Amino acid sequence: MPLPIARLAVLIPVLFAGSALANPSEAATKPVKTVVQAVRYSKDDLALKQFALDAQGAYLLEEQWEKGTPAQRAEFKKLFQVLFAKIAFPKVRENFKNLATINYDPAKVSGDGASVGSLILINHPLKKQELKLKYDVVKEGAAWKVKDVSVLGDSMLLGIRDDQVRPIMKEGGWDNLLALMRVKAKELSK
Fold it and tell me: Class of 24-188 per CATH?
C-alpha cells in the first residue's frame, strides 16, 4: 500500500536527519566549509551564523562570562561578530584571491566537540603558501558551530583573550570592555 503524500513529507526530514546523525564527522565539518566559502564570497552574514557565540564568549571572558548580565553577554556577542567580520574577514578574502585548493581532514568528534583540520594552498604569483588550519567545533543544540580557528598552531581566541580581553577586563570590567568594543565597531563602520 503506497504511503500518503502527507506521511511521506514527514518521513523525508527524518531520513535526512538520520543520515546526518549516522556521520557525525561530516556534520561537524559542514559549518567549517560553510564559513570558508561564505567568507571567500563575501557572504559574511552566512559565515557569522556558523560561529558558537556562547562558547566563544565563555572562552574569551572565562569566569567573567557568567557574571555578565544577559544584556551584557548579548551585546558582547553582537559586537564581537561585527568586529570579527570587519577585521578578520577582509584579511582572509585577500589570501583567498590566490586560493588553489582546500583539503579537509575528517572531523575528530568527541562528545559535543570536534576538531577539523584543513590544508589551504595559496598560489600567489610571488610565493606559494601552505596554511594548516585547525577548527574547534562544538555542538549547540542540534547544530555544529565553529568555536575557534588555529593557524599553524596559534589559536585565534587565545590571542584575543590574552592580549586584549584580559587586560581590558582587569582595567575596568564589562563596562570598559563593551565601551571599547562599541568605539571600535563605530570606527570600523565608517
Answer: alpha beta
